[in-house]
Amino acid sequence: MSHRTPFIAGRLYPPYKIAALVQLLLEDGTPAEATLRGTGLDPADLHDVACRTSVEQFLLACKNALRLSRDRATPFRLGGRLHLSDFGMYGLLLLSTTSVRDCFRLAVKYQLLATPTLSIDEAESGSHALWIFPDEATRGLPEDLRMFLIEQQATQQVRHLRDALGIDCHPISAYFTHPAPPHSELYREYLRCPCVFNWHRSEIRYPKEILEQRPRLANALTAATLQATCESLVADAEASLGFAGKVYRTLRDMRHPGARMRAVASALKMTDRTLRRRLADEGTSFSSISHHIKYCVATQHLRSSEVSIEQVAAMAGFSDPANFRRAFFSWTSMSPAQFRRLQRMPPVTAGQRDVQASPGFVRRVAITGGVNAREADVLFSEHHFGTILARGAERGAARHRHRSTTRC
Question: How many domains, in total, are found in the chain?
Answer without folding.
Answer: 3
